[in-house]
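Slide 14.
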Amino acid sequence: MNVGVDVGGTFTDAVLLENNKVRTTAKVPTKKDLLESVLEAIDIVLEGVNTKDLKRIVFSTTMITNLIAERKYENVALLLIPGPGLAHESYNFGTTVHILSGAIDYRGREIIPLDDREVESTLADLSRLGCRRVCVVGKFSPRNTTHEKRVADIIKKKYPAWKIDLGSMIGGQLNFPRRVTTTYLTSATREPYHQFINSVRQALAIREIDADVFILKADGGTMPLANAEELPVETIFSGPAASTLGVQALIPPGETAVVVDIGGTTTDLALILSGQPLLSSKGARVENQLTQVRTLAVKSVPVGGDSALQQDGKGLIIGTGRLGPAYCMGGPAPTPTDALRVLGLTELGDPLKAEEAMTDLGEALNLSARDTAGKVIEMVVERISSEVNNMFLDWEQEPAYLVWEVLQKKKVRPSLVAGVGGGASGFISQIAAKLGCDPFIPPYAPVANAIGAAVARPTMQVSLRADTEQGYFIIREEGFQGKLKDRHFNENKALVLAKEKLMQRAAKYGLVVEPEEIETTHREVFNMIRDWTTTGRLIDITVQTPRGIIGRVLKGDE
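Slide 15: predicted structure.
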């Protein structure tokens, strides 16, 4: 038996799967005390179950996605060490940015030293502004971390209470802007992510559950709970990945469909081509900034069933934030859920409260409750449909999509829109019609995210860095460093070694994987030149056991 739990901004969902069939589901409101929500959901699906029979539990969360979509994450200052190149005005990341002198070149050599007094002056300015969390990112820090670590040492000495994240520790690949964005988002969402992880650990300890526990990553893979806090950035789009895998498990095999997951806070969009989720070739995009997070080709739109609605004198506005539950469910403001209730498209909440919300919202526009509700639905449908069309411009540039079109022998778009999430039943038919597609709401659609977590195939990864000049290699996930005994160690041998280490690591968790199944998710080789002669190589390779689902979720008669 497997359990999947999805902690969302509005609801916490859970499912118990046995022999690929849904045995029990749960949907409970997500409270401020996440532990309470997780325990309540787990207790419902595990009632009467011997926890020793559980094989594994996989958790996902849309909370981090929601924070980013609503821009409710913590303020973080960026201390950048870009060296010579672009004008400093080019480094605009939507937060406080301070440029520090100093530079490391692409070979890892210091070409401009840090100015300690400049660093201390900058920190004093940040302290006066009340800053307590900073990211330090150097352009070529993966080649040489000296400058980042020096700045961190000064911060720890002068302001020991500050929280610090280093770009070289968060994103090990080159590409300065992506590494900056990845580090920034990791730092900004670290506290709520730790709260999520701690709630998971406490819930498992309280219920004495000792099954294997994994956290779903943005690319549809998983990582053990024990390693989750080391790589929080990998779960930025955990929630959208869960809904995508859930649809993959619920639709007919080999089907092609646009995934529209309408939750309370956001609507997540994804694409499944011939039964396989589309993977982004460029990494996760957040507010038009690319990151180094490997992810499915998903997008979160800040519109959901609980989005706050406003009247601005000329029309209606859908807010980008959630103030609480729908008005008909005791919330403070009218929402699309209230509109659905007035039109009889949902059974949630008090119908009289919903009508009151729509009446008050439409009063200044001389609209009845039903007319106001109809207008709200039209606005939501238009917004989501427009975002889907915009996403197609990105999806159609993905290599996997181009290959799929070649196999279809014509230029074609998917004709099926699969709707999941709490708001799917009220919106998906109209969204599909707007897109010229057929609507499809699979069974268990309201808890598709939890199903996606439950069916996610457990994965592991190993990141290997080898320095042939110094004669050593490092396995980042295990903090292991070993000597290279082979004088002719090269990229191919590094790949073989990484796969061997991955298979050993997977075996500890009972995962059996063949070498040919292993994915290579990152590969980079950098030649070390001394006196015009190649003296060694830096080799970075990341490998992962195959992603996917353990199987389709079967209905009772299958």
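Speaker note: Residues 281 and 399 are 7 Å apart (CA to CA).
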